[in-house]
Design a protein that fits this description.
The structure holds 2 protein chains of 2 kinds.
Chain A: H1 2-14, H2 28-31, H3 40-63, E1 64-66, H4 67-74, H5 78-85, E2 96-110, E3 115-121, E4 130-136, H6 142-145, H7 158-174, E5 187-196, E6 204-212
Chain B: H1 2-17, E1 31-36, H2 42-57, E2 61-66, H3 71-83, E3 88-91, H4 100-108, E4 113-116, E5 128-132, H5 134-148, E6 153-159, H6 165-178, E7 184-191, H7 196-209, E8 215-218, H8 221-233, E9 240-242, H9 248-255, E10 262-264, H10 267-284, E11 292-295, E12 298-300, E13 308-309, E14 312-313
Parallel strand pairs in B: 1-2, 1-3, 3-4, 4-5, 5-11, 6-7, 6-8, 8-9
Antiparallel strand pairs in B: 10-12, 13-14
Helix pairs in contact in B: 2-10, 3-4, 5-6, 7-8
The chains are: A alpha/beta, B alpha/beta.
Chain lengths: ~220, ~325
Amino acid sequence: MRQAILSGALACLMLPVAACKIVPNPDPESQSETSAAQTDEARMAAYVEDRWQSEVLPVISENTVAYDDFQARLGDGLDAAGAAYGLRPEGEANPWNFVMTGSGIVTEAKLDSRAAKMQVDMDGDGSADVTLQLGPVIRGTALRDAMPFIVFTDFRDQIEFAKLARAMNERASAGLEKPEGEVVGEEVSFTGVFTLRAAGDTPEIVPTELSMGGAP
Amino acid sequence: MSITRRIFVSSLAVTAVLPTIRAARAQEKGLIAIITPSHDNPFFKAEAVGAEKRAQELGYDTIVLVHDDDPNKQSEMFDTAIARGAAAIILDNAGADATVAPVQRAKEAGIPSFLIDREIKESGIAVSQIVSNNYQGAQLGAEEFVSLMGEEGPYVELLGREADTNAGIRSAGYHDIIDQFPDLEMVAEQSANWSQTEGYEKMETILQANPGIKGVICGNDTMAMGAWAALEAADRTDVIVVGFDGSNDVRDSILNGGIKATVLQPAYRQAQLAVEQADKYLETGSTGQPEKQLMDCVLITPENAGDLETFSLSG
């Protein structure tokens, strides 16, 4: 071992001087952005950005169900709706996630919050049937858990996996054209993902598409 | 000298656990070693009891060992399990980094490990890692906390043991919710290492420095029990306390109007599920599940606390 170090050192000494090249010190600021120094947040944001168009959006368009069709199937129970339209990771006690599209009338809106939301009446009875989470802070992990290509085992730990869910929520929120001003009473159309733990729960949808005033 | 002593001590440990092995009938399916942190915390006791019961139902002998969150002790227990030719190991581990080596050692000895509650920092070594969905659970607890606080006021966070990923993930889940409310101000954040005694002591000190606090959010139930006891002693039962685990102690406190809420981890079922996956793996060579699995948590409030018993919810 010691001999190896010695001979290595000797080899270095014997390198011809001509092989030396003066390299400027790297700019410390640009270095901090390289992968070695990346935080979980930055790494997960990059992971999501790399796959958003190529993998995430295709899963969404392939699994989208219209609100009315979903409600009809939900009448037979959550598992029936899940078997027909749902997505969920393998394992016991994982709830179903769905991709839904529809349009309705905004009954309530909180747009000036970091966790902006709109309540939407889907069936014309005047009361809200779904919540649209506009973010940028969005609750839950529906978007992550609906993706069949995302497997917990592939990630370092729950912390990294949670940052991934958050990065996906933030990417969805960033891609929306946020409604402004007085929106109550307006029509809204959306496609988005939500987790449903019980048939009677209000879907808290993370929209990936959103437009005000009728079909997009 | 120290080596001889260590062998002597571990053989003592083996002798001490021998009586818990069921030798009544000769069983063909072999031995399952169940290794958890100290049973002083009822959470870990529920895990050990759940795993042992299911293993015996499925026809295994069992050996139950406690590592007290000491990686060296845990390592010796793996040696014991390997020396006894265990068929499988069910483990709630003593540290995400420190546990990689012993699980690897067991794997090389042909013994598969099935982890519950806590993850390790690598995949591909254990067969299963079944953990509570701590992020989802922490968000549930935080939402309840925010609502109980009326979305405002100074509060304290008691964190779990730093070497345990669950401490970090629960704190992340809490803050992803709480930090959305600018009128909620965290005046102290300290680790009480999952411990009731430390929870009491830390709370006592924090309260002296910050007499104006309105709430305490805790990374687990034992720290919540410690904090609540300190608040009671200081005649400050107006302070809102929220825990995490779903222990019977906190259930009783909730029902008596003490601690306000907690988050149930399905610890009993989780331990049973790990044994079922071990059994399936030993019989068929596969669990049929991905290695890492999450199990959802449930918010416990006065409304459903009455249905809670030993880390499972009825009805």
